[in-house]
Design a protein that fits this description.
The complex is a heterodimer of chains A (about 260) and B (about 375).
Chain A: E1 3-8, H1 17-26, E2 52-60, E3 63-71, H2 80-84, E4 90-92, E5 98-100, H3 110-114, E6 121-122, E7 131-132, H4 138-142, H5 148-152, E8 158-162, H6 163-176, E9 196-199, H7 219-226, H8 229-262
Parallel strand pairs in A: 1-9
Antiparallel strand pairs in A: 1-8, 2-3, 4-5, 6-7
Chain B: H1 10-32, H2 34-37, H3 48-60, H4 63-73, H5 80-104, H6 113-116, H7 124-148, H8 154-187, H9 205-231, H10 238-265, H11 277-297, H12 300-303, H13 306-330, H14 333-336, H15 344-367, H16 369-372, H17 375-385
Helix pairs in contact in B: 1-15, 3-5, 3-13, 3-15, 4-5, 4-8, 4-9, 5-7, 5-9, 5-15, 7-8, 8-9, 9-10, 9-13, 10-11, 10-13, 11-13
The chains are: A alpha+beta (about 260), B mainly alpha (about 375).
């Protein structure tokens, strides 16, 4: 069964325990912190910060609202990064996580262009860089454990399990929660469906989630062109050989006409 | 040494100095890394080097397949020397692209890995890589007769005869491979879907890239002839080149109609009149890259003049380059949320590598006399063709 995570934003208290657990388990170095407009720290996800609790303060109905959104790779069901990877280094595993094989990656960074969530991060500061992103702690999952972030969350905001089951849980919560939740399961349809799902108590525009993401499975965008290549080759080939035959015939006729003339 | 005919001139000296600069940047990049030598970030992962040194240089080499097609499939013997100059330029441009790409990818020595060990047939980039690699073999066979012609050996004659015999096969394979990778360079950015600015979003960007690459190939041939006639005193075959110009104008016309048609179909046509920075950039691209060349080439008097043909060709090439730059930068800036400005080292590398490519081209055309076609050779070829 394909695994996934359900992040219930109403339960997140913004403690950043997941951020710390991720760094510890994956042995990621600390980054120099910066003061920004919000409490988010560091300011962005990077090759060294794979998950980040992003704070966003806004106003809703005249009252201040602060949202905390844990962001990381969403592990798409049909990942754009996997489909564009020239080296077949990025793979959607059967378990659910989308992983990068550092021995294959050549560093073309096409995945960074393709990902609609801006997930893959590159070690631009290194001479021998790697593409880095959340792995859903695939080695922990293989060992029967939960991802580090889910295991550490003190308020049960991050549920780990089979994606299909989590989707049911999410629907049940929306159904029983009344006005507690807004009626949208983020990741159910986004980018053709993602393994990580979100439910929220405030409109998604007020969270750090990208709300302008298409519901199409992205690999089709390029595949629709690529599967026409045989037809393109056929058309160009036939047109070329047709022109060649025509040109040959024309030269032959011209040569004959010349012969006639000289006779 | 009688074969060393290449002479340095002040212009070549400047180009060589720039070339040296780009080699210095390349070395610095190898030892200091991408971050130190470029302004690339996670939100602007593809910069000047990908956009210009790869995505724009490949269509600049399209003169190879278009001119081989004209020469062999339209049986147009008058284009023999235009084709020779175009085909050697294509080979140098493609090799230059491959060399530059190695410095843009994170781990340069892994450049051939996807071709040799593993790859992903769903990746447009993988397809581009394969087609370019195979096309280089075609270009080798299309050019090797020129390299060997100086040797008066029996085996050389035989080999040249064999290559000449199979030339249409090489040309056909070259045309097919070029159709594939020139269009697949457009497929690259189709993965972003409508994250692309509506002015540059096109549902079949791959075919727009192919059409503009064909136009560019013909235009580059005209530019090469303009340069060659000025610099080496070869004949500027106005009538033959005017026909290439018409071909380019037709390809541009189809591309322009399709682009505008797609804007209408997507309901985004009003965007072309909505004043914002992107709109002005779009208009510059369309006016310089499509309207100007098509307009110029529709006048008989312009087609009969060297300056007219060269200007139209320059517009075509500039339009091709602007489309690629706008797709990579202007059209994606909002979606990526980044303000990328290339660093000095990035610019020096791109300018220097381009200058180096030009210098290497002059070395080949000056060293191999049969590329320029001395008058008597030209006459002999004409009689043989008749």
């Amino acid at each position: 069964m394909s695994k996934g995570m359900l992040i219930d934003l109403t339960k997140c208290i913004g403690c950043r325990g997941c951020q710390v657990a991720c760094k510890q388990w994956n042995d990621l170095p600390a980054e120099k912190t910066q003061i920004g407009a919000e409490f988010t720290n560091p300011q962005n996800r990077s090759a060294y910060t794979w998950t980040l609790v992003e704070f966003k303060s806004t106003e809703r109905d005249g009252k201040p609202v602060c949202s905390f959104t844990k962001t990381q790779c969403l592990h798409c069901e049909h990942p754009a990064c996997e489909s564009v990877c020239i080296a077949a280094a990025i793979k959607k595993t059967e378990l659910g996580p989308v992983t990068v094989d550092h021995d294959k990656c050549i560093g073309c960074r096409y995945c960074q262009v393709a990902c609609p969530f801006g997930v893959p991060k590159y070690q631009y500061d290194k001479v021998f860089p790697k593409m880095q992103k959340c792995t859903m702690c695939v080695e922990r999952i293989e060992a029967g454990l939960q991802p580090a972030c889910a295991a550490t969350c003190p308020n049960g905001a991050i549920l780990f399990g089979d994606r299909a089951e989590l989707l049911k849980t999410a629907k049940a919560r929306l159904a029983s929660g009344g006005t507690k939740y807004i009626d949208h399961i983020y990741g159910e349809k986004e980018a053709g469906g993602t393994a990580v799902l979100y439910i929220s108590g405030i409109p998604l525009e007020l969270t750090a989630l990208k709300t302008d993401v298409t519901e199409d499975a992205l690999p089709n965008y390029t595949w629709k062109a690529m599967k026409q290549i045989p037809a393109l080759l056929g058309a160009v080939g036939v047109a070329s050989l047709g022109l060649l035959a025509y040109s040959n015939r024309r030269t032959a006729i011209a040569a004959e006409a010349k012969k006639e003339e000289s006779r | 040494m009688t074969w060393w005919r290449w002479r340095i001139t002040p212009l070549k000296g400047i180009l060589l100095a720039l070339f040296g600069g780009s080699i210095a940047v390349a070395l610095y990049r190898l030892f200091a890394g991408l971050g130190a030598s470029t302004n690339l970030t996670d939100t602007s992962p593809w910069g000047l080097w990908k956009a210009v040194d790869v995505i724009i240089v490949v269509p600049l080499g399209a003169s190879g397949f278009t001119m081989a097609f004209v020469r062999y499939f339209l049986k147009a013997e008058k284009y023999e020397y235009i084709m020779r100059r175009s085909v050697i330029w294509a080979a140098i441009a493609y090799l230059s692209m491959g060399a530059r790409l190695a410095f843009d990818i994170g781990l340069p020595w892994r450049l051939p890995y996807p071709l040799v060990f593993w790859g992903n047939i769903h990746s447009p980039l993988f397809e581009v890589a394969w087609c370019v690699a195979l096309y280089l073999i075609v270009l080798f066979f299309e050019n090797v007769p020129r390299m060997l012609e100086r040797f008066q050996a029996r085996w050389v004659e035989r080999l040249n005869n064999a290559i000449h015999h199979f030339a249409p096969v090489f040309v056909l394979v070259g045309v097919l491979l070029s159709s594939m990778h020139q269009s697949s360079l457009g497929t690259l950015y189709m993965i972003v879907g409508k994250r692309m600015d509506p002015l540059w979003y096109h549902p079949w960007l791959n075919y727009i890239y192919l059409l503009t690459a064909i136009a560019t190939g013909l235009a580059v041939a005209i530019l090469i002839e303009g340069f060659s006639s000025r610099y080496y005193g070869t004949a500027f075959q106005t009538r033959e080149l005017a026909k290439l110009g018409i071909g380019a104008a037709v390809a541009l016309g189809i591309a322009l109609l399709w682009r505008v048609g797609s804007l209408i179909a997507e309901g985004q046509i009003s965007q072309i009149l909505q004043p914002r920075l992107e709109m002005y950039i779009w208009w510059i691209e369309i006016l310089v890259g499509y309207v100007m060349p098509i307009g110029l080439l529709s006048f008989h008097r312009v087609r009969a003049s060297r300056w007219g043909l060269v200007l139209a060709a320059a517009g075509t090439v500039a339009g091709m380059a602007m489309l690629r730059l706008n797709v990579v930068f202007t059209g994606m800036a909002k979606a990526m949320g980044s303000h990328y400005v290339p660093s000095f080292t990035e610019i020096l590398f791109t300018v220097g590598a381009t200058a180096g490519t030009l210098v290497i081209y002059t070395w080949f055309v000056e060293t191999l006399p049969t590329i320029q076609g001395e008058p008597q050779v030209m006459a002999a070829a004409q009689t043989a063709a008749d």
